[in-house]
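Running this now, will post back.
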Amino acid sequence: MRTRWGLAHLATVVLAAAFGLWTWLTLSVGAFERVDALSRVPGVTGASARGQILAAIAILTTPTVLYTVLAGLTLWAARRRLHNLAWAMLLSIPLGWGSSQLVKMIVQRPRPDTALPLITAEGYAYPSSHMTAATIVAVLVIAAMVVTRRRRTMVVAATAALVVAWWLIFADRWWLRAHWFSDLIGGGLLGGFVAALALAMAGVRVIKFGSPRRVTDGTRRAAVVYNPTKVPDLPVFRRQVEGESAERGWQPPLWLETDADDAGARVARVARKRKVDLVLVAGGDGTVRTVSAEFAETGIPLGIVPVGTGNLLARNLGVPLDLADALDAAFDGRPRGIDIVRLRADDAHDDVSLVMAGMGIDARIMSETNADLKKVVGPAAYAVTALTSLNSPPFRAVITLDGGSPVERTPALALIANVGSVQGQIALAPDALPDDGLLDLVLASPERPADWGAMATRVLTRTGDHPGIERAQARRLVIETDEPVAYQVDGDTIGECRRLEVSVRQNAVLVMVP
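Update: finished.
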């Protein structure tokens, strides 16, 4: 697993001390007065060609431009499920701008009298905001290349180019006499501190210290079952998986791609025949449950790489949603046995659920949610559809628990849960545990559409159940209805049925968790 202490944490402490010491030496001791005095010598003139070029560079490298570039990189990282890296980039923007402005207001150091009168040379001098922003961008770009496991030669070349660009901005500010020499170094140190702090706060580990990873004898191998429509950047994903495997002494992974005709069952059987030691499942909850069904009671653990929209099983098991952290959990975590829920609708083939299955309004919501909207706003798209589905009529159901006496109900929703929460916070079935060998049944029977609001409020605030909600636990249950009712399994609408038989197999699948 990832250690709590990494290079970013060490750099944060060192650079904070360095910036504090540099500021004290500059402003209190005057240690750099001689070199700062060179700024009193006039530099270029605004009318010269050289001066105009330098002024253009100053505008193109303003903090506004550089932080805009960083905002674009934040979106790039977020789309690739590099959530920790995206948070670091996002945090660094207000931290960088805010800290530099705060120090300027406290210090109130004037610009050199020889500064070229440009918009990029207004305000206080210490520290240089240009150098702060340039350092932050450079550090985070290098961190992104390391995290995404770019080739060493590419990282070295990019680092060299960024160093050259950094010194070009340094020289530009110096030749324009926009700053004293000590302002430029101070800005660089502040930028390095902010970048390191953002990486540490977001949990990005560029280089790890502490306990070494478990390195094998080179005989172990992982299979990667992935849904290509869910993996946003396959080259980045492949590099990260192969890099994590190689670092631990594993053989190159076996790559198996699902397709429209096979959600993962066929390729999972291929992985099982190859007798791999670990199966990484990269997809939504549907891919995870399909692969899990094939590896039930085999003793081969699954590592979930959450790249779907909901990732409900991962959230309930505490599997990180960040790609790098999820891979750490898969390789270095502990195996946890979880239950598999078996379902048979009418005379159809058996299906399985790891999260939640249901009949009624939830299946309608799943089927009517716009796929394009879901890609844009994620799980919030379900809430949009739910608003138009609250007037769905209830259905008459006869429910039998563990072979007991049948009971009649008229619910709008019958939910069978293997886990307790959706989106990590909404506890639809608070007593449900993924490894207790029990099914948790939740019946919602509103008398009118307005009751849904009261039920939702009770669930969200955890203040107790609404009278229209009933709960029960069993190892086996049967739901029979008068008319065909839509049903869903782990977010996938399967069809309609009049009879749903459900049972549970305890601890049938091993899943790697932190």
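The chain has 17 helices and 16 strands. More later if anyone needs it.
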